[in-house]
Design a protein that fits this description.
- Helix 3 links the parallel strand 3 and strand 4.
- An eight-stranded parallel β-barrel has the order 1-2-3-4-5-6-7-8, surrounded by five helices.
- The chain is built from eleven helices and eight strands.
- By secondary structure, the chain is an alpha/beta fold.
- The protein binds 2-phosphoglycolic acid.
- 2-phosphoglycolic acid (PGA) binds next to strand 8.
Length: 251
């Protein structure tokens, strides 16, 4: 299976012109070999313009709301995303959880997105405080998130048809370069195996793709992507540098 590499631009860049140019450079850098499936997730205002210039990469959104067409000022529905050419929605990123997004909200967002036939990238991961209590505390924390975030979804058509992807993103490794610790890829591998086993035993999800995210760059990408169990990467900072991102995609 091809690795899945997601470019999460977060609140970048500043203008539509820069966004389009960045997208074009990234798309070109994917190369004819198309070694990986690449998704670019720009901020909402740039989705359509970026979507128009993509030849190889797919379009992703960084967030979504759970209701269609109602009195919810400032929210964007799965259908709106779908009609803008979006194929993937990132849901439950730790930077959104930090702003108050709860597991219950995440659960509703996942359900609505799957119904609209978007592919979901659900982000889970423990904080530094939890990690300090050890790997088994981290495992329990992540299992708790998955239980709540995927609650009630296991028997739906959508999950069974592999529309859900999990990204394991330990919060302490995001934008910190802390994954450079030599033991890190093995720890990530262990967590990812656990996520797959848990989702299989608890939700009957088979062959769940699980990505790694947290300071992935061109130098360390291979440490993670070499494992067949790690199905790809969610890349923040390095996805704003086309050369760097190109190396990750063609690792
Ligand atoms: P980072 O971000 O690669 O800059 O650490 C990853 C993410 O938050 O998705």
């Amino acid at each position: 299976m091809k690795k899945l590499i997601i470019a999460n631009w977060k609140e970048n860049p500043n203008s539509i012109t820069e966004a389009v140019s960045l997208a074009q450079q990234i798309d070109k850098g994917i190369g004819k070999a198309n070694k990986a499936e690449v998704v670019i997730a720009p901020p909402f205002p740039f989705l359509s313009a970026v979507g128009k210039v993509l030849k190889r990469a797919k379009l992703g959104a960084q967030n979504v709301f759970w209701e269609d067409k109602a009195a919810h000022t400032g929210e964007i529905s799965p259908r709106m995303l779908k009609s803008s050419g979006v194929k993937y929605a990132i849901i439950g990123h730790s930077e959104r959880r930090r702003l108050g997004e709860t597991d219950e909200m995440i659960n509703k967002k996942i359900s609505a997105s799957l119904k609209a036939e978007l592919k979901v990238i659900l982000c889970v991961g423990e904080s530094l405080n939890v990690r300090r209590r050890g790997l088994s505390a981290s495992k329990n924390f992540v299992k708790g998130q998955l239980k709540k975030d995927l609650k009630g979804l296991h028997s739906t058509f959508y999950i069974l048809h592999s529309r859900i992807i999990v990204a394991y993103e330990p919060i302490w490794a995001i934008s910190t370069n802390k994954n450079a610790r030599p033991d890190k890829p093995e720890d990530a591998l262990e967590m990812i195996k656990l996520i797959k086993q848990f989702c299989h035993s608890h939700f009957a999800i088979r062959n769940l793709p699980v990505l790694y995210g947290g300071s992935v760059n061109s130098k360390n990408a291979k440490n993670f992507l070499q494992y067949k169990e790690i199905d790809g990467a969610l890349v923040g900072g390095a996805s704003l540098k086309p050369d760097e991102f190109g190396k990750i995609v063609n690792f």
